[in-house]
Design brief:
The chain has 249 residues and is an alpha+beta fold. The protein has 4 helices and 15 strands. It is 29% helix and 26% strand. Helix 1 runs antiparallel to helix 2 and helix 3 runs antiparallel to helix 4. It binds magnesium ion (MG) (2 copies). The site of one magnesium ion has 6 residues, from strand 4 and strand 5.
Length: 249
């Protein structure tokens, strides 16, 4: 069941998401060779606590950290670790909070420094595909229009979209209906309405879209060892079009 949000609720979700955006902006600045993702996790928790919010992922289904940090061939749900980031790495940082009973959720992929041209292109295309999807998040369109826009942007660039993990509705719960796949057919799926709030989150692999879960039970990585990137925004569908609640600008 899709829970529509009132303008007041969307405003509250804007507040939750602005904390997420602030954390991601701070994290992006801190990503450098030698920094560990555990240090990034600690920073995220500190800022969240200062703002009177709660980290959304910590304890969710038993996930042990506040931040998901997925390096190189890791796709999503990576554990922060004490391995220092190295030049040439890319790291996907996925963060969520709960504030005043409403959730925010957003992700970015950041270059550590001196990354390959192909890694840079992967990141650029993934972010671009997110915005192509957001552009379709309009009243009267269907969910499949978002999915199709993301998928075609990615595949035209020669990359692939992960099938096993998808975006989602969000509100008083971190994950609500509808699931928001990054692949699909235009004109299909539920009709989009003002008041829907969804997290669109393309996960894009350099190689095949096949993924597997590491022995830690959480970290998802590409099957073929190729790089993966992830960008996510929480957006509200309004009468005036899509509004990015987790905008960092
Ligand atoms: Mg997320
Ligand atoms: Mg999400």
């Amino acid at each position: 069941m899709i829970i529509l949000k009132s303008p007041e609720e969307i405003k509250k979700m804007g507040e939750s998401n602005s904390i997420v955006a602030e954390v991601l902006t701070g994290l992006e600045k801190r990503v450098k060779p030698g920094v560990t993702t555990l240090e990034l996790n600690e920073y995220a928790e500190t800022i969240t606590q200062k703002r009177g919010a709660k980290p959304a992922f910590k304890g969710y289904g038993g996930f042990p950290f506040a931040l998901c940090a997925s390096v190189n061939s890791e796709v999503v749900h990576g554990f922060p670790s004490d391995r220092p980031l190295e030049e040439g790495d890319i790291v996907s940082l996925d963060y969520g909070v709960c504030y005043n009973n409403y959730y925010g959720d957003s992700a970015i992929t950041v270059a550590v420094s001196g990354i390959s041209m192909s890694a840079a292109r992967l990141m650029k295309v993934t972010e671009e595909s997110l915005y192509r999807g957001i552009e379709k998040a309009r009243e009267g369109n269907r969910l499949g229009d978002i999915s199709f826009a993301v998928q075609s942007c990615v595949e035209e660039a020669g990359f692939s979209v992960v099938r096993d993990y998808v975006g989602h509705g969000i509100g008083k719960n971190l994950h609500e209906d509808p699931p928001v796949p990054n692949f699909g057919m235009g004109g299909r799926g539920v009709k989009l309405e003002a008041g829907m709030v969804i997290a669109i989150e393309p996960m894009v692999n350099e190689g095949s879209y096949a993924v597997k879960v590491k022995p830690d039970g959480w970290t998802v990585e590409t099957n073929d060892g190729s790089l993966s990137a992830h960008f996510e925004h929480t957006i509200a569908i309004t009468e005036n079009g899509p509004v990015i609640l987790s905008s960092r600008t």
